[in-house]
Request: fold
Amino acid sequence: MNKHLNELIELSKLDKSIDDFTPLIVASQKKLARRTEKRDDIAQKISGLNAEIEDANMKIGSFEEQIKVLSEQLTLGVAKEKAVGTEREMKALQMEAELAKEKLKFANEEIERHHKILDVKASELEEVNGEFVKASQELDKVSIEVSKKLSSIDEDKIKLFGKRETKTIAIDQKILSFYEKIRVWARNTAVVAVKKQACCGCFMKLNDSAYAEVIKSDEITTCHHCGRILYLEPQSIQSQA
Ligand SMILES: [Zn+2]
Reply:
């Protein structure tokens, strides 16, 4: 086979190997992003629960304050009752006392209700805190895994880039720039095999004379339909022989 063609086949295989790392990198980054998102969601749940707990505590405090005021009011009312002269005044004081007792009852009920809410929220918080610890540990684990994986990919890539550099230096620069131009649009299919007399890049059939050129491979041949560089699959060469 043509020496230049052989070099281009090897170079295109190398370029493909380098590009094949991209989906691996993306997958690793996605995995890390998913774990981070999971942990952040739990952190948000925790802050929501803490806000609800703070709210319930504030309400309990405000009802306790009300109870204090109402109790003082009641004590004062009892003292006033002793000093009243008329029945009308007495009735008014009794009504006031009734109202204060109603309010006291309501305040006590509300405190009780909010304590129940606090119990529920506290146990939810305990559970979610446990989830957070677990998610953080998982994230740490995945983070270490991913950074190991990425640095090993980096090492492999650096090796391949080194190999690529050696190859590109050895290749005729005109041929290299011809290849690079095709690679701009054809990416990893800049150099393709011919199978059953068809280009494996665009899958169009080559005419007999073009096919004969590929078989001869004296020079670098390109597909007349798409412009990709062509070579004959080794099996096809055998079947041709
Ligand atoms: Zn083609």
Q: What stands out?
A: The chain has two domains: 3-7+17-170, 173-240. The radius of gyration is 41 Å.
